[in-house]
Amino acid sequence: MTGRRAGIVGIMLLALGIAWVAGGGTHAWRLARAAQAAPSAGKGLGGHYGFADKSGGRMILVASGGTIKSPERLVRALGEGGRSIPLTYGGRQKKSAGDTGRQTAHNFDNLEGEVYRVREGRAVPGKTYCLVEAGSSVLKRLMAPRKLASLRMSGQLKGKIERAKKRKVIRSAVLSELMDGKGRLHRLCAVQFATVKGQALASLVLASGDALAFKDFAARWNALSTWRVDDQGVFDTGAWECVYASGTGGDLRLAVTWAGPEGENVIELEASRGVLRETGRRYRYWAPL
Q1: Does residue 33 sit in helix, strand or coil?
Q2: Same-domain check for residues 226 and 109
């Protein structure tokens, strides 16, 4: 088996393992197929996903079985909860003999893909960003991130979530606070609930005024691996980050990253009637050699 083929097989097996642990039966298989098929530079909510190099001065959209149409039209990188970074297209980079298949800042110069230069300031090295065109609806309605005074969730909000789910919260964190164009505050949170009769539950929660919207992650509790491989039955709230949020009022869209030892999922969501509905998923492979 060639090194390239072995790397592809490894990515597929890791994606299948994550999905099988996170769910069960048909649902888990759908997640596995989505993770397997999702291209790293795939189209999302008006953009494509790439990451920054070790200096934070460049970004790359990794090639995934084809080319991106008009890559020069991608002029902004959204990330870090809603920061907008101006870009200049630098051309297509060819794969080198030293490519390990890992989508990491360390392997940046060896990967094949579209490369962009950061025009102002610096991106966070290795961080995932969503690249969009100037006329993107996501960019036009981008919500402004607020600096968090604390990651701790208030007792009032925790109680509200517990009442909504009729289940005790045992782990929680506020991931991001965002202000929409009408001055309304939205809080994105991650929570783990108490396990009931072997059934574990965790959620992403978007709190917008009095309204709550949930993206649930139900799983069979396992002391070794419940949501991700080797998570020890803990839903790590620190593994989640908000890439961006866009919209106003009841029409909100956002992208989040979920990091693990083997790689990172990018999950796109939209809020609708109390649910954070998943609209897309991408996978970035970075398992250590």
Answers
A1: helix
A2: no
